[in-house]
């Protein structure tokens, strides 16, 4: 990196920290940024600072928001007795894009992963159980269909069931448009086990 | 993008401007940035501003540098009578990494590309010809082996030849370690035409 001016090397180094950005991509991005109009560069830099400064956890559901209580938790049109538990804000956004779900969310910010040293106290589980002291009809677990997501789902279900609250897990199966021959065995098995009468 | 806080949407939008960064990658990067420690975020943002503010063209070779005259042009150990013409600073860095070349450079910042409306006045060609008024022994053209790079090389050679300055083009052929059966026809033909006696 000594072939570039210190400022360019520094920029490349900083960009390389980002996930999925290797040295080559970082240098491509750096030279692109140097070529951008001044205002655009300032806007990019400012948006990074602004997002970091203003975005915090919603005090109820722990999604990332710029308000104390996020718009969904604050909305009177949502069913506050149904809580969908997701691993992160992006998963919540995925369901919001669908638009059909009218309940509220709880964002865990991760999943239980003993191998990575992430235990039940490292994600927002305590905060979820705290919420269940209010009037809640159903908890829908929408953690990922990975080993960690399943383990987290299992743990939540163990704690919630004795409380007499209805608990459900989003269905696992063949994705719409999926070609059976391209789908892994576990998914095929799950789809069979979860078959519904038509 | 309405599913996120305005600050997050803005950050995603700004990151999407960068080349090769689509909506999905931009949102992955944005959430990663939100998760980074405060100082690291500030450093990233500052490095963008610093690079844009301090990096300019070297007054001699037009590479990107933070000095008036870049370290290579200022060096007494380099052969200032040999000029290698490259399309951009990254290409210059590629040759500097090899470390064998002892001459200086001239960075065009592009190549002639009529389809994209880039003519001979849109890249640093005038500035190259200006430099040739000094005592220059050889001009080595190291533009890319693309249609635009070749057209630029041809144009430079046409202008420089009448001046009685030695002009050369870096060799085109099979890359070291390249498998003949995987190499395109034009390269194979070039390699044959450019064969050297052993």
UniProtKB/TrEMBL annotation, chains A, B:
SMART domains: TOPRIM (SM00493)
Pfam families found in the cross-reference section: RecR_C (PF21175), RecR_HhH (PF21176), RecR_ZnF (PF02132), Toprim_4 (PF13662)
Cross-referenced PROSITE patterns: RECR, TOPRIM
Signal peptide span: none
Record key words, sorted: DNA damage, DNA recombination, DNA repair, Metal-binding, Zinc, Zinc-finger
Toprim domain sequence ranges: 81-175
Keyword rRNA-binding: no
C4-type ZnF: 58-73
Entry annotated with the keyword Zinc: yes
Function: May play a role in DNA repair. It seems to be involved in an RecBC-independent recombinational process of DNA repair. It may act with RecF and RecO.
Protein family per UniProt: Belongs to the RecR family.
The protein's name: Recombination protein RecR
Originating organism: Eubacterium album
Lineage of the organism: Bacteria, Bacillati, Bacillota, Clostridia, Eubacteriales
